[in-house]
Amino acid sequence: MIDRRFVRTALIGLCAFLTSGCWDQVPIEERGFVIGVAIDFPRSSAAEETAEKEAPDRPEGRWRFLVTHQFVVPGGLVSGSQQRGVQGSANEAFLNLASEGDSLLEISSELATRSSRFPFYQHLKVLIISEEVAKANHAFADALDFFLRDPELRRSSKVMIAKGDARPVLEISPINEKLPAMYINAVAENIQKNARILPEIWLGECHENLMNEHSFVLPRITSNEKEVKVAGAAVFNGKSNRMVGFLGEEETEGLNFLTDRVKGGMLKAVLDRELVTFNIESASRKIKADTRHKERMRFVYTITCEGVIDETFKPMNYLSKDALKTLQDHLAKEIERMARDTIRKVHKQMKTDVLGLGTYLKQEHPHLWKQLKHDWDYGRNYFASSEIDVKATVYIRNVGEINTTETRSRNEVR
């Protein structure tokens, strides 16, 4: 026979289980959804900061940050029209709040004194760091620490480096979007349309690079009042975790070819002073190395690219094998030129391996890598003393719907 006290206790426990709720549950209407964050150094206290940094008793790595949070204003998303010029107006879909402090947690807590909704970072799309913060000693890693430790935040948030200050990037007013952070997030994903866009780098990848002391790159972003431009790259040295400089747009395209990250885009070739444009459909690269002498190792990149002719101003018969071979060679030389410009910048000037050669040695020559990994692109810097070359091959798979173009002289066009 079942004990009545046992049944009573079981029923009470079951009722408590069914009626209990999460102890930390927050109603969705009370959440302050943050979709974008920009991190700068405060401009108003620059002189004070300089004095503090030079003080002998200042703790190493301590910085004061100016952080801008972009909150979603749900009412603005459903409004028929969006008022411009006054952030936080009745029809605005976002609200930017900026605050400064010695730590990101302090800044996040300070926002509770100014906003009815406490910051909630689970839907953070973009984290934008200023050029100045990225170059300062320890500041970049310190700025990321809060976001890496927050259990609510997804590690798939995109990280970018602003040319100049980061705050103005979140203050743009894009014409075709209501949320600047969502607009920036979408632009950064257009890597299949333009090879000068660096593939997105997530917060989790940044953490991995910081922990492993791997040199790495992050997308560069610039802005004006109406729009942003995501092109170029910021180069970080893996030992110091500081930014050492920017790569331009063509140099970034060359880097994408060298690191096997080209997803699409276009190439231009000039043949007899006439322009031909080539749409990239696929690209790959291989590395061969001569490692017999670690003081002067030699690496050769072999890049293969395939695509179609999308536009041309050069009158010629595109079914001719000789004509296609000439055009393919010109396109290949263009890839080699961009790649060599990139190699010259990161190899000779920055002396920082963001070309993937350290990873290649670790995978293909593990015993050698153990000998030189602590002196690869710092210390003795075997990377800087190596030789690097590149060879490219282009295959035109299609010339479009027409095979020949109009024959004309330049004088006739003019």
From TrEMBL:
Q: Where in the cell is it found?
A: Membrane
Coiled coil (residue ranges):
none
Which segments constitute the Spore germination protein N-terminal domain? 24-222
- Please give, as recorded in its UniProt entry, the membrane topology of this protein: Lipid-anchor
- The molecule here is called Ger(X)C family spore germination protein
Q: What keyword terms does UniProt attach to this protein?
A: Germination, Lipoprotein, Membrane, Palmitate, Signal
Can you give the residue ranges of the Spore germination GerAC-like C-terminal domain? 232-400
One Gene Ontology term of the biological-process aspect is: spore germination
- Protein's UniProt keywords contain Transmembrane helix: no
- Family under the similarity heading: Belongs to the GerABKC lipoprotein family.
Gene Ontology cellular-component annotations:
membrane
